[in-house]
UniProtKB/TrEMBL annotation:
Gene: SCRN2
PANTHER family on file: SECERNIN (PTHR12994), SECERNIN-2 (PTHR12994:SF16)
Coiled-coil residue spans: none
Name this polypeptide is given: Secernin-2
Gene3D superfamilies listed in its UniProt record: Penicillin V Acylase, Chain A
GO molecular function, one term: dipeptidase activity
UniProt record, GO biological process: proteolysis
Length: 433
């Protein structure tokens, strides 16, 4: 399938998962000596996103790992990860690992053709980068090596009608961030060490390239996308001349996100990032006919390595009507069954060939309760504001506890830390009943 053909699909399918926004802020843009990461996952409206934890593991030589479509050689060691993912697939839209690495991805279409057949999804690459990366740079290397070896492709929706795209990524740790943008197996990366940066559904790396595919410029020149003279501009060379409608809309979201970061420069906190991700006027908090913000994530990565990283997830649609719940990596993690979808094993429609011929119930307990209380009920303005206030109170309590912990004003036992997400889910569910 040629790139132009994939664009017509993007224009014609209103339910297509082709919009997300990802943000990072470093000192001096952040209000403290910490890195703030945030992402909204905008997906088909009825798709369920779960929050799942996988512990670190050591694997026997010759072990394999089955991603959404491909089976790969497993790494000898995989790191503990917390993931927010569409419940039908193996990978993740966003997540973090025990070493303070956070990754999110975005859909993008370029001049490079969309590959026929099944390969690695961008969401698979997110999880692989987190499981195998000790740092953002390490995860970048993992993703680019796998991308060059296996390629990217396969349906990105749980639907018999195939829908595919290429990906961009934002990877960060306590010290630096990387924007990674891809076109097929080709890629360019930009290193970020200060200030703020956001990405949306478009190529944004121009001439400031910190690392790249070894054949990137040669390929662009052979295709007639670059003359070979002057500065090499990745976005100019690989971006489609005629953008899909959704990518044109992403330009407005990208500009709005950049302006919100600039407006809060030097003052960006966890709460600031949550407010940005809840911003509906800009379209960053997505709510349209076919798709919406199905889940959201914010992370606080203190640059002091003796302090823990804190990751917040909604596990429910519309962050403006959800509670961000905290998670910290500790030795013994309490399972979060209320935010985990049912498992169907080999009987899952995604694993049977042909795929996606039937539908299964993927809603987890938190999603069902949230849906009953919010999605299936029409609230008055007064009722909406009252519920939002109650949710903010639950969220505020956990935020205050995290601030006290990071400021060393209190000491919380590891067992209590492992229960944070669980306790916050229970408090949130009580609000909906």
């Amino acid at each position: 399938m040629r790139g132009s053909e994939s664009v017509s699909m993007a224009d014609g399918d209103l339910a297509a998962p082709c919009s997300c926004d990802c943000f990072v802020a470093f000192p001096p843009a952040s209000a403290s000596q910490a890195v703030i990461f945030g992402k909204n996952s905008d997906r088909p409206r009825n798709e369920v996103q779960e929050v799942v934890y996988f512990p670190a593991a050591v694997h026997l030589p010759g072990s394999k790992v089955k991603c959404t479509y491909l089976e790969l050689n497993q790494a000898e060691v995989t790191h503990a990860v917390i993931l927010s993912r569409p419940a039908w697939l193996w990978g993740a839209e966003m997540g973090a690992n025990e070493h303070g690495v956070c990754i999110g991805n975005e859909a993008v279409w370029t001049k490079e053709p969309i590959t026929e057949g099944e390969a690695l999804l961008g969401m698979d690459l997110v999880r692989l980068g987190l499981e195998r990366g000790l740092s953002a740079r390490d995860a970048l290397y993992t993703i680019t090596q796998l991308l060059e070896q296996y390629g990217q492709g396969g349906s990105c929706m749980e639907d018999p009608a195939s829908f595919t795209y290429h990906n961009t990524f934002l990877l960060t740790d306590r010290k630096e961030a990387w924007v990674l943008e891809t076109a097929g197996c080709y890629w360019a990366a930009q290193r970020i060490q200060g200030g703020s940066r956001n990405i949306s559904n478009q190529l944004s790396i121009t001439i400031d390239i910190s690392a790249e595919h070894p054949e990137l410029r040669k390929h662009a020149q052979c295709q007639g996308w670059w003359s070979g003279e002057g500065d090499f501009n990745f976005s100019a060379a690989f971006s489609l001349i005629k953008q899909p409608v959704r990518m044109e809309a992403a330009k407005a979201r990208y500009r709005a996100g950049r302006e919100l970061l600039k407006k809060n420069e030097g003052l960006i906190t966890i709460e600031t990032m949550m407010d940005i991700l809840r911003n509906k006027e800009s379209g960053i908090c997505m709510d349209s006919e076919g798709f919406c913000t199905t889940a959201s994530m914010v992370s606080l990565l203190p640059q002091d390595p003796t302090l823990p990283c804190v990751h917040f997830f909604t596990a429910t649609p519309d962050p403006s009507m959800s509670v961000y719940k905290p998670f910290i990596f500790v030795p013994h993690i309490t399972p979060i069954p209320m935010a985990m979808s049912p498992c169907f094993g080999d009987q899952d429609p995604v694993k049977k060939i042909p795929r996606f011929q039937t539908k299964v119930e993927r809603r987890h307990q938190l999603y069902k309760t949230h849906q009953t209380a919010i999605q299936n009920k029409k609230f008055s303005q007064e009722e909406t504001e009252k519920l939002q206030q109650m949710m903010q109170n639950v969220e505020r309590q956990s935020l205050l506890a995290m601030k006290d912990l990071l400021d060393r004003r209190i000491t919380i036992h590891p067992e209590e830390l492992s229960d944070l997400f669980f306790d916050c889910v229970e408090a949130e569910m009580k609000l909906y009943k």
